[in-house]
Amino acid sequence: xxxxxxxFQPDWVSPPGxxxxxxxxxxxxxxxxxxxxxxxxxxHLNQLVKGKVPLSNDAALRLERVLGSTANFWLSxxxxxxxxxxxxxxxxxxxxxxxxxxxxxxTDLKKTGVIPDKRISKAVxxxxxxxxxxxxxxxxxxxxxxxxxxxxxxxxxxxxxQSDVGAIASWLRLGxxxxxxxxxxxxxxxxxxxxxxxxxxxxxxxxxxxxxxIRRLCSEAGVKxxxxxxxxxxxxxxxxxxxxxxxxxxxxxLYGKTNDKFWFTFxxxxxxxxxxxxxxxxxxxxDPNSVTQHSPEEDExxxxxxxxxxxxxxxxxxxxxxTKSQILEFSEAVNIHxxxxxxxxQHEELLGYATPxxxxxxxxxxxxxxxx
Length: 372
Fold this sequence. Notes:
Elements: H1 16-27, H2 31-38, H3 42-49, H4 57-67, H5 71-96, H6 106-111, H7 125-136, H8 141-147, E1 155-157, H9 165-180, H10 189-200, H11 207-220, E2 224-227, E3 238-244, E4 247-252, H12 259-275, E5 283-286, H13 296-309, H14 315-318, H15 324-334, H16 338-347
Parallel strand pairs: 1-5, 2-4
Antiparallel strand pairs: 3-4, 3-5
Helix pairs in contact: 2-3, 4-5, 5-7, 10-11, 12-13, 12-16
């Protein structure tokens, strides 16, 4: 285990010259004598000892012959010194970047395990800057602003409150990291359409029985599907986007979802992939619970998802449902979970939201990609 892995971060550096001094003292040599043996000027050796000039391959070979050990030892010593020197310089920069943390949902990032669940004091903020730069995969807050802040132009929002770029970027990044671990074939629209028909049949199952299957069917069609813990400040429940020309991603948060909301969100995002692939730079940020901004794309995705779950041919029958027995009979006839039927009736204002029929819905917990 390295010092870094142990959490050891010294605030000092030791150049290879420290080892040279130790060896000179063992031999009772002066710097002048060592310089003569190495064939260096006294000034150059002094700069080398102090770490003011880099230790070259030639110098490493000379040290091997004069002081012993190997050239690789001396070069490794030099590399570690330069690395630690760079880390100390970077740590100083982190101290000037701590204001960037104010843009990020630190409390939620604690809950997801991205940063330690500890009190955030002034003393720990520079280390948090380093951790979060690594999390986002950027070199500095400027690059974060360019990459993730620049994504705002690509956001297609369904809610005015979706303006917290730090929260949205954090949630998107959690999905990106999960997606990076998935190696899938290129996206195939025909295969995805077939997969969605099969996925609809899973709606009657409890979540523990369909988690792996829905991911498998999407994967075989080249669609990455990830379930990511919620970041409330993002006001995003689902996202459809393209990571590159051949790799679409559906990202869903299951926090506080009932099965009617989950399945509508899933098919809504699937609709964006199917219907709106002409612009692969758009990022659809969706919150079906509170749609305040309308667009042709969102209206199309809403209609497609609704008709996928309950085909238009059943609209007339749907309007006459108002008892539990009727809903159960209808659900069995169309092979859909009764909770989804209740949600549809409520959406169309055919049923109140305080109805006892809400018991027909099932609440979901987060389904991780490690287990169902």
